Amino acid sequence: MRAASAAGTGLALATQATAARTDDGAAALLEIFAKRQSVRRYKSDPVPDEHVRMILDAGRRAPTCMNQQPWKFLVIRDKEKIARMRQRLIEVATKPIDAKLQQQTNVSEQDLEPRKKAIATVEGYLSAPVYVVVLTDNQCLCGLEYTKHDGPLAAGYLMLAARALGYGTVYLTDSIPEAVAREVWNIPDRYRRVCITPIGVPDGWPPPKPKKKLEELVAYESL
Amino acid sequence: MRAASAAGTGLALATQATAARTDDGAAALLEIFAKRQSVRRYKSDPVPDEHVRMILDAGRRAPTCMNQQPWKFLVIRDKEKIARMRQRLIEVATKPIDAKLQQQTNVSEQDLEPRKKAIATVEGYLSAPVYVVVLTDNQCLCGLEYTKHDGPLAAGYLMLAARALGYGTVYLTDSIPEAVAREVWNIPDRYRRVCITPIGVPDGWPPPKPKKKLEELVAYESL
Lengths: 223, 223
Fold this sequence. Notes:
The structure is a homodimer. By secondary structure, chain A is of the alpha+beta class. Chain A is 44% helix and 12% strand. Chain A has one domain (48-204): NADH Oxidase (3-Layer(aba) Sandwich). Chain A is built from eight helices and four strands; from the N terminus they run αααβααβααβαβ. Chain A starts with a helix and ends with a strand. At the A-B interface, helix 2, helix 3, strand 1, helix 6 and strand 3 of A face helix 2, helix 3, strand 1, helix 6 and strand 3 of B.
């Protein structure tokens, strides 16, 4: 990093470090952390193979217990497979709503709103061209007590890499229930599902969410 | 990023993206992922307050269930507190070794090697000027089924930020047993201990660990 740009990005203090150095990556990286947001609707623009590879390559660099690297990244790009997931999730989301509506004698336009909203949410999540299912291998030497860390770590890494390349992601767990993911995308019991993230060009970046101040989250020396 | 430097860092393909753009952060960030390694011995050089703040500030940007941000980052810099942890961990590590040695009639220099090694390991981990205990709040609206993701995600973020600023980290779980951490650093039951990481200038960067090839970790369309 050039001194001028360091100062311009609030990293001027970094030059006071006695031993650590602020290299080219620091300012840009620190911005990426703040810029990654959960994206819930995507454009259909494709993600080039090389970008998918770079994103996954970041995931495999995460800290991992005893260097076991227990990950499997299942990449789904097949439009038919994505459409099947969308259809199945719409069924799951609308079933309880429809059951309730069927008990009503009169159904108003307003009564149908929750149904429309549920469908729109699913369609948003399932609008991306690429999905990565982050899995950990139950056959790993390190049990779940350890792999439970490795899974989210790799997911976090690859989502940051996606953001650095200009793509949106969202860390989905309940929004694609594990049982549905296993059924529709054939995930064997050998693997534990950590999360699923779409990767794609956002259909607009969402406004930043309000966040707690750092002071609320940090305790110095004692709690 | 200027086109010339993009090509130089293997990101030339990024320019083929139809909609995503490779900004200043991409190449630098993607390098940081690969450069972060587990560091097990540190120099005593201080970490400036501003760097600690920047590192923690990255942690709080991690994905989080329902925007709950259930984190608490306990920062320990008090030399006396660090020394007490070192002493306690040496006791824990040497106790079973000493019990075994006391049953022997003759104790050779070689018999003492495991004891020396255990002490050196603890001293390495406890040689940094700063420790961050990453905690999640059990009172969070989202239960452990969700906060179990949030914890490692924040830890991964802040460790990457530390690396971007030139510092080493290591994701410690069993090396500082949770019960010992609670006892020595007074961590209330309200918080779940995710991990502890030292932050400091490495006493030499360790050689890179062998890693699985990306191809071993990725499956396209089906497992």
